[in-house]
Amino acid sequence: MLSTNRESPPPAAGRAAMKKELADQFKDHRHVWVFIELERDQVHPVSFELLGEGRKLADKLGVQLAGVVLGPPGEATWFAIAEAFAYGADLAYIVEAPLLADYRNEPFTKALTDLVTNYKPEILLLGATTLGRDLAGSVATTLLTGLTADCTELDVDADGSLAATRPTFGGSLLCTIYTLNCRPQMATVRPRVMAMPPRGNNKIGRVIQHKVSMIEEEIVTKVLGFLSDGQSATANLAYADVVVAGGLGLGAVENVKLMKKLARTIGADYGCSRPLVQKGWMPADRQIGQTGKTIRPKLYIAAGISGAIQHRVGVEGADLILAINTDPNAPIFDFAHLGVVTDAIRLLPSLTELFTHRLSPHSRDKLAN
Amino acid sequence: MHIVICIKQVPDSAQIRVHPVTNTIMRQGVPTIINPYDLFALEEALQLRDRHGGEVTVLTMGPPMAEDALRKALTYGADRAVLLTDRHFAGSDTLATSFALSRAIAKIGEAFGTPDIVFTGKQTIDGDTAQVGPGIAKRLDLLQLTYVAKIVSVDINGREITVERRSEGGTQTLMSKLPCLITMLEGTNEIRRGSLDDALRAARSQIVKWNAADAGIEDLAKCGLRGSPTVVKRVFAPPERAEKAEQIDTAEKTPRDLAEELIAGIFLRQPALESELAFDGE
Ligand SMILES: Cc1cc2nc3c(=O)[nH]c(=O)nc-3n(C[C@H](O)[C@H](O)[C@H](O)COP(=O)(O)OP(=O)(O)OC[C@H]3O[C@@H](n4cnc5c(N)ncnc54)[C@H](O)[C@@H]3O)c2cc1C
Asked: Does the pTM exceed 0.80?
């Protein structure tokens, strides 16, 4: 069976390809690069998570870690560079041009492939965001190199190759993938899969400026408008400290309110398993899991969620997972830390009420006195 | 207008089991489906054809049995189906897949007319990479519009297209030119039920079957395992968590009691949380 992501080890005929025989043209590729995603003046936090991971790889290889910033001339672009240093970059590559103001595939692909061709990184990491995936796919194809999507673990093996581990078949299996004979070795990682590294106060280091060899007239695609998701948006779900989520066990659309009410009471964000999106009970960007968001909260409360593997892969990074489910054999109890076998519809209102009591300033004051 | 859409036959991953000892996928009896995201793209392609006239060609690369997926697409109303199948494609990664598909699309262009739009789904549910669409675009030097939520307008004569695409934190409206490649987001539209006519036509239709040579692929080193820069070194099951969840005893307890115990359990494990949780109630 053909697959864009092979499901079993390659047949014996392909074993020859598993030897590392790096062509001369690739031998001078050095350093680990992290693409710093800057969109609409904001650095995506996944870039910092990747710098944390990139730092470890660079240290193992004994090479430098670079941040790559593509953006319009202006403060935000230089702020992104300063941030890259604060999160561990040793140097930064920057391409500043007005045509890099809004993300478009054409100029970004051109700028990034030019940088790679000129400065030859060994490893290039990008966030598996809509922007990162759009860009990574065309950069890898232009450079005819390997790209491993949605990695959950990155490492450097004994001979210095990047070992990129990613889930396959919806998370039921993991596979470790190498790009042996091409450079750079490229990988994307979803937001929140890697831990956020501490922010240091590194001084600005070496900055290498490069020009994009493209003019606006050559770019066919024009941005007509941008509608932000706004404040009410769910952009924060992946970064929330506390998340409450509901699954099909909530039974009916009215009961979704119980879950949201608990979330509001404790200042949490909320999400759901996939069937709730399919039923139209919740919008798609609230879905948590393999085809939804990866979250990494300090506390995750799952009400009426079975814990299928596709859901599990999105929540495993949580510090404390609490499961409420009527079925003692539900798979969620295999990876939750604290569980209670009971009816979520009955428990949620009590939980909300008691949290209210415990967390209300009034009762806090009383406790303090 | 001529629209080409790439689809993939995938195992229904909800029904996949992993062999506990060998760590391989147990495929026996696992039904295959058309990759769900591709169906949104197919519906979009069919709607554009219905509005503007022209033809929709579905293309898949896969083993001979992938013919089933193509026949299904014909029952939904696609006009023509091409199966690209050859042992040389086995083991293709995204780079090799995008190479083979792009050659086949070029050949489709020669045989049946240059496509105005090439569609793919946002990603597949087995590979999940979202890389093949952009790969094809690059290989064919097409403009790429990924994560498209809505096609706002297509001006065939002016060769212009306007789409809304998802980006981080918002929706971008882009104007671009034809020909282009579009990867389609989920949830935009639901696949139609094909008509009886379509079903009859699909049953009678000949599916065009091409091997590498038919698709004009001479350089087999760019295909399959040989053409894939990525190598799968190891496949393994995710590590089990050692201990199961600590269970709160529920015997003869009211929801209030249980809630109390749960909250105590949370703050016992994460004492710092108590001061962090915002109280936002009445
Ligand atoms: C390609 C693919 C991608 C997918 N991606 C995702 C994804 O990103 N995210 C995701 O979540 N899923 C995803 N899924 C779906 C996933 O396989 C499961 O079907 C889904 O997670 C199940 O959702 P659920 O637990 O809410 O529902 P169910 O599996 O129906 O489970 C409901 C649970 O609620 C319990 N319950 C019932 N009544 C009550 C009650 N009154 N109180 C408490 N508990 C109760 C039941 O015991 C059961 O465990 C994907 C599937 C596929 C095939």
From this structure: yes
Q: What is the CB neighbour count within 10 angstroms for residue B173?
A: 16
ipTM of the complex: 0.91
Predicted confidence band of residue B279 (pLDDT cuts 50, 70, 90): low
Q: Is residue A125 scored above 80 in pLDDT?
A: yes
Distance CA B232, CA A8 (A): 8
Q: Which residue has the tokens 């939750």?
A: A336
Using the beta-carbon criterion (under 8 Å), do B232 and A9 form an inter-chain contact?
yes
Q: Does A178 contact B277 at a Cβ distance shorter than 8 Å?
A: no
Residues of B (187-206) whose Cβ lies below 8 Å from A: 187
- Rounded (10°) angle between helices A130-143 and B132-140: 50
Three-state SS for A198? coil
Question: And the tokens for A148?
Answer: 């491993």
* Backbone torsions φ then ψ of B188, nearest 5 degrees: -85, -35
Which of B240, B94, B129 is CA-nearest to residue A167? B129
CA-nearest of A195, A192, A197 to A313 is A192
Q: Cβ neighbours of residue A22 under 8 Å, at least 6 residues apart?
A: A180, A181, A183
- The ligand 1 atom at the shortest distance from the C-alpha of residue A276 is 26
Bridge partners of residue A303, in order along the sequence: A246, A324
CA distance A60 to A4: 30
Does residue A355 contact residue B263 with C-beta atoms inside 8 Å? yes
